[in-house]
Design goal:
The chain is built from 7 helices and 4 strands; from the N terminus they run ββαααββαααα. With 188 residues, it is mainly α. Strands 1-2 form a two-stranded antiparallel sheet. Strands 3-4 form a two-stranded antiparallel sheet. The longest helix has 25 residues, at 160-184.
Length: 188
């Protein structure tokens, strides 16, 4: 059997293609670009790999802000299992789940089970590092805020009132920061 120069057969799709259509043309076992991309999409979409990516991103953020970091892969497995595919804020099934730090890492939050919810990625990006109570109240109402406070209190094994007080303190700090920016920006 003779082989054509600058042509290779993809072992996955069995298509004969020019070498420039291969990502790693010099390797014996490389697939064509299309097959490599498809395989990468499947690999990334696996639930276990989504968890690993979420953990890596959360740990990177914790390191950036110098936050306490006790989160493990098993913790994330637990949180994703408990979430059961539903967003903690909206209650809807998620297409792109993400790790949400209730108290933002940039404002002293921890990267631990008792500070994390699983939410839709779009909502996580909307909240950014804003105040959790205000965000939840504005978008979903007090009932959801109460459920989240109860959930966090149960995870931490402390009384509802303690977590509620933390939410109140965070709200007060957020408001003070907002007013400082407002007054400072008025050209005083």
């Amino acid at each position: 059997m003779t082989t054509k120069p600058n042509v290779k057969t993809c072992p996955k799709c069995h298509g004969e293609k020019p070498l420039e259509k291969f990502m790693y043309a010099d390797k014996l076992r490389s697939y064509c670009n299309n097959c490599e991309r498809q395989q990468t999409k499947w690999r990334i979409a696996r639930p276990e790999n989504r968890l690993r990516t979420a953990l890596k991103d959360a740990k990177r953020s914790a390191a950036k802000y110098g936050a306490v970091d006790t989160l493990t892969l098993d913790d994330l497995r637990y949180l994703f299992t408990v979430a059961n595919g539903r967003c903690a804020y909206s209650g809807a099934f998620m297409s792109a789940p993400s790790v949400e730090h209730v108290k933002p890492l940039s404002k002293g939050g921890t990267n631990s089970v008792d500070n994390i919810l699983i939410v839709e990625n779009a909502l996580n990006k909307t909240k950014k590092d804003g105040d959790p109570a205000e965000f939840i109240d504005q978008h979903y109402g007090f009932a959801v805020t109460r459920e989240i406070i109860e959930l966090l209190a149960a995870r931490r094994g402390i009384d509802f009132d303690v977590v509620y007080a933390e939410f109140e303190d965070a709200q007060a700090e957020y408001s003070n920061e907002f007013y400082r920016k407002l007054i400072g920006g008025a050209g005083r």
